[in-house]
Write a structure and sequence with these properties.
It is a single chain. Helix 17 (444-459) links the parallel strand 17 and strand 18. The radius of gyration is 27 Å and the shape is globular. The two termini are 46 Å apart. Residues 39-47 and 559-565 have low confidence and may be disordered. The chain has 565 residues and is an alpha/beta fold. It is built from 20 helices and 21 strands. Helix 4 packs across helix 5.
């Protein structure tokens, strides 16, 4: 919504926001900036001071704030006949080569104000900053999974600000913007966060206009908008008035490989030099229309530019998330062997389970008496095997279709048993939340898994509510996240080896694998998944490494039937 003052004097577009509720006599809206503090300065005369009760306001729908309207507005803005837009069009439409020169700021230690920006960074991260400092048009940073993109961006912003440069920081999501800002806050860096306080992280609310509104006049707000050296918002947030009146030295866009080209234009139009940070080997922009995707809307600007001008790309390959067994899958299948562990400690890390030694000994004894369930759970959770594929071909674990929804109750039961095993191993409630993530490409599978978890924990004498401590989500929602142990439910299991489009996308599989730090457990039908070229390669690699575990025929019988889910 757009709020405009009608009386005592006409002021158009005073504030923007969203409708919260509507009843018979009122409309409640959340606006940025808030109207109440501003009315103190909109005097009727020298003697009178208006209030919201004595003013007349008008609310209009903001046709450009959502959907395709704002994307079209970005395209229109790009077509402006001025030098800046002509140069931008030559770079992103004509694909002219970007220019590089001597770094605008020296990283050789001659400038003591720049030195803190490089402290603690590895060689690749430091060179990423130097690569940006040398750019005259744009720079691309390809940050592979776990390579410290957020830390590098924060240090880059610090380096630019230390050199007197103005920086616009943007991303597709509020969470990505705020993750960087929290690091800047820890560095003691000041900044201005554009966005509603309802959408930003609590730790950066004080840096929003609304959070620091007290004591500001319209004149001082104008001065704040024009003087803040670092300004941060989402790509959609660049519709704020500040970005119509100001040009920045640099614009840095995180998550750039997930943002459509038209959306990415918003921040790019506001700066002399732009920096795109992303990884086009992970998920692309989400486009629901198959026709639009086929015509190129799912191709990000990051991907287009990186494929056109490889010299513009700086790669960060040293990762600090996955152990070597998990990392190797992604490195060999996706990154051509370039991804590597940053330290030997990371490479050799294993899942730490408090009660593993005693529990493993007990389960070994129980196996001799035929306790099959303990045997397969032990094999799957063993810290010494960081990657396990539980092949369900030997049991009745076929997918179930309800309309367009796909579910696999047997896989949900297996996952519930695995989480139950972790509880038996002494993993506390708080550790369970921090350590374990359950993911699936199919949203319809999530509720089946959650219900199975509740029943399993109740069977073990735990409250059903404890199941909520285990984060269950889609693969797509987990991009940018990680856990010590990731359990992936692949769902598809049928005689036709039909895997569907979701499991044919190697970028989605790459995201799933690279969420795990020390333990990656796949649960699925190997015979079905071989219908996907990417999974056929993955299964060959897992078989070569002895990482496929055949799920036993009576593996679930000891506890409950899969058909009872």
């Amino acid at each position: 919504m757009i709020a405009s003052l009608e009386w005592p004097r006409r002021q158009t577009g005073v504030s923007t926001g969203f409708v919260q509720s509507i009843d018979e006599g009122s409309v409640t809206v959340s606006l940025d900036p808030r109207l109440t503090p501003l009315t103190r300065f909109a005097k009727l005369s020298q003697e009178d001071e208006p209030t919201l009760d004595t003013q007349r306001w008008r609310l209009d729908k903001d046709e450009l704030s959502t959907g395709s309207g704002w994307l079209k507005a970005n395209l229109v803005r790009l077509c402006a006949d001025d030098e800046h837009m002509r140069r931008l069009r030559s770079l992103i439409i004509d694909l002219d080569a970007p220019r590089y020169g001597v770094p605008s700021l020296s990283a050789d230690g001659a400038d003591p104000t720049l030195a803190p920006s490089f402290e603690g960074l590895n060689v690749e991260q430091g060179r990423a900053i130097e690569h940006v400092l040398a750019a005259r048009d744009y720079a691309l940073i390809l940050g592979m999974p776990g390579t410290g993109k957020t830390t590098t961006i924060a240090r880059l912003v610090q380096a630019l600000a230390s050199g007197g440069k103005s920086v616009l920081l943007a991303s597709f999501t509020n969470a990505a913007v705020d993750n960087i800002l929290l690091k800047l806050k820890a560095q003691g860096q000041d900044f201005l966060r554009i966005g509603s306080v309802n959408s930003v992280h609590a730790g950066v609310v004080e840096y929003t206009v609304e959070g620091c509104m007290f004591g500001h006049t319209p004149a001082s707000l104008t001065q704040l908008y024009g003087s803040a050296r670092i300004v941060a918002t989402t790509c959609l947030g660049t519709k704020h008035e500040i970005f119509r009146k100001r040009r920045f030295d640099y614009c840095i866009v995180d998550e750039a490989s997930q943002i459509s080209q038209a959306m990415c234009l918003g921040p790019l139009c506001c700066a002399d030099v732009f920096v795109l940070v992303g990884d086009h080997y992970q998920l692309p922009p989400l486009v629901r229309s198959a026709a639009a995707a086929e015509k190129g809307m799912s191709v990000s600007l990051f991907k287009r530019l990186s494929e056109s001008h490889s010299q513009a790309v700086h790669q960060m390959c040293s990762q600090y998330r996955m152990n070597e067994s998990i990392m190797s899958l992604s490195s060999e299948l996706v990154y051509g062997g370039q991804l590597r562990c940053g330290t030997q400690e990371i490479a050799s890390s294993v899942l730490r389970l408090p009660g593993w030694s005693s529990w493993a000994a007990n389960s070994t004894a129980a196996t001799a008496t035929g306790a099959t369930r303990l045997a397969w759970v032990k094999g799957a959770l063993a810290p010494t095997t960081p990657v396990v594929f539980l092949n369900t071909d030997a049991i009745s674990a076929e997918e179930v279709r309800s309309g367009d929804a796909l579910q696999n109750p047997a896989e949900a039961a297996i996952i519930a048993e695995l989480v139950g095993g972790l509880v038996d191993l002494g993993v506390s409630d708080s550790l369970l939340a921090d350590m374990v993530g359950v993911i699936s490409p199919y949203r319809s599978q999530l509720q089946v898994i959650k219900a199975a978890l509740q029943r399993q924990l109740q069977r073990q004498g735990r409250p059903a509510a404890d199941a909520d401590r285990v984060e269950v989500n889609t693969v797509d929602r987990y991009q940018g996240r990680d856990k010590d142990c990731i359990i992936l439910s692949l769902v598809r299991s049928n005689r036709n080896r039909a895997v569907g489009d979701l499991l044919k996308d190697w970028r989605r599989i790459n995201v799933a694998i690279t969420r795990a730090k020390t333990k990656m457990i796949f649960v699925g039908s190997a015979s079905t998944l071989r219908g996907s070229a990417v999974f056929d390669l993955l299964l060959r690699a897992l078989a070569q490494g002895g990482q496929i575990q055949q799920f036993p025929v009576d593996g679930l019988a000891a506890s409950f039937s899969a058909s009872g889910i």
